[in-house]
Design goal:
The protein is 32% helix and 24% strand. The protein is α+β, with helices and mostly antiparallel strands. The chain has two domains: 134 residues, PurM-like, N-terminal domain (60s Ribosomal Protein L30, Chain: A, 2-Layer Sandwich), CATH 3.30.1330; 150 residues, Phosphoribosyl-aminoimidazole Synthetase, Chain A, domain 2 (Alpha-Beta Complex), CATH 3.90.650.10.
Length: 322
């Protein structure tokens, strides 16, 4: 059995890369991080709990990827550039067969985004993974939830609903063909944080949020914080490749309120459509215009003909009953 310190040394300690803004990494009482002069730090934490956020038998490599991906997604939604992160880990046992792929999955994604693991905490206990991530953004350029303006377009990156479709398959809520489940599953296990798009949207988008609990609920946070309302074009929502072959009712439901998408929902002035599309192209991320910000409070859904839709959809809430 590995000791706590062997485990940290073996799986979570690497030489700090020269390109990183890190003066001191894992191994001291604190890490030392040097943000670029004049930048604001963007800071976010996300905790993933076994049985709550992932199945007990979750494959460790994709779990490592996903834990960091959901944190990177928060930086993306702020227009922040990743710098560093810490990892607080409770583990029932120190098994190399689990730790090796877990750290590889996590650190491969970290390398992709030049985001350095600089410290953390390790303890024995029920599996629980908490990451705190640090990014940098020029003052005044963060994509905040309270910045949507009346008349803005509402945009979505990528596609929605496949993670929820995979979950429905695993939970036997739906009987899915093997191929449909295989197509949808990567969206649940290995989400792609839209960091490059978030950076490209600095100075173009007004408000942004990442979609973790479902579009309706997450867009609702922008509306509440910006004190505006919105109309969503329910049939313009980009369904994931697997969800696209399902019936219209399911497509709407999972695209609007599925959750676990980690796409960006953002608003931008209608005058800046070309700039939004250029940012999407620059970052290699598809975007779709799916609605507009209105004066009137609340969220309205309309179909392809512009007729109002009355869909009873709730977004995910850990403390909602049942
Ligand atoms: P302290 O008791 O001073 O908080 P620890 O003994 O908990 O320090 O950790 C030793 C070093 O290893 C610290 O630099 C800490 O940040 C780092 N560390 C602990 N756990 C992890 C982890 N899971 N991933 C990365 N670094 C870790
Ligand atoms: Mg400690």
């Amino acid at each position: 059995m590995l000791s706590e310190f062997d485990l940290i040394a073996q799986y979570f300690t690497r030489p700090v890369r020269e390109t990183a803004r890190v003066a001191l990494g894992v191994g001291d009482d604190c890490a030392l991080v040097s943000p670029a002069p004049g930048m604001q730090l963007a800071i976010s934490s996300d905790m993933l709990v076994e049985g709550r956020h992932f199945f007990p038998d979750a494959e460790p490599r994709s779990l490592g990827h996903k834990c960091l991906a959901v944190n990177l997604s928060d930086l993306a939604a702020m227009g922040a550039r990743p710098v560093a992160f810490t990892l607080a880990l409770a583990l029932p046992e120190a098994r190399a067969e689990w730790l090796a792929p877990f750290s590889e999955g996590m650190l491969a994604l970290a390398d992709l985004h030049n985001c350095e693991l600089v410290g953390g905490d390790t303890t024995k206990g029920p599996l629980n993974i908490c990451i705190t991530i640090f990014g940098e953004v020029p003052p005044g350029q963060a994509l905040r939830r309270d910045a949507a303006l009346r008349g803005d377009d509402i945009w979505i990156s990528g596609s929605l609903g496949d993670a929820r479709l995979a979950l429905a398959g695993y939970r036997d809520e739906l009987t899915l063909p093997q191929k449909t489940l295989a197509d949808a599953a990567p969206r649940m296990h290995a989400p792609t944080p839209r960091v490059a798009l978030g950076l490209a949207l600095r100075g173009i988008a007004c408000a942004a949020i990442d979609i973790s609990d479902g579009l309706i609920g997450d867009l609702g946070h922008i509306l509440a914080r910006s004190r505006v309302g919105a109309t969503l074009f329910a049939d313009e929502l980009p369904a994931g490749a697997a969800l696209a072959s399902q019936d219209r009712e399911l497509r709407r439901r999972f695209a609007l309120a599925g959750g676990d998408d980690y796409e960006l929902c953002f608003t931008a002035s209608a005058e800046r459509r070309d700039e939004v599309l250029a940012a999407a192209q620059l970052s290699g991320t598809p975007v779709t215009r799916v609605g507009r910000i209105d004066d009137a409070a609340g969220l309205r859904l309309v179909d392809a003909a512009g007729a109002p839709l009355d869909l009873q959809l709730a977004s995910f809430d850990h403390f909602a009953s049942p």
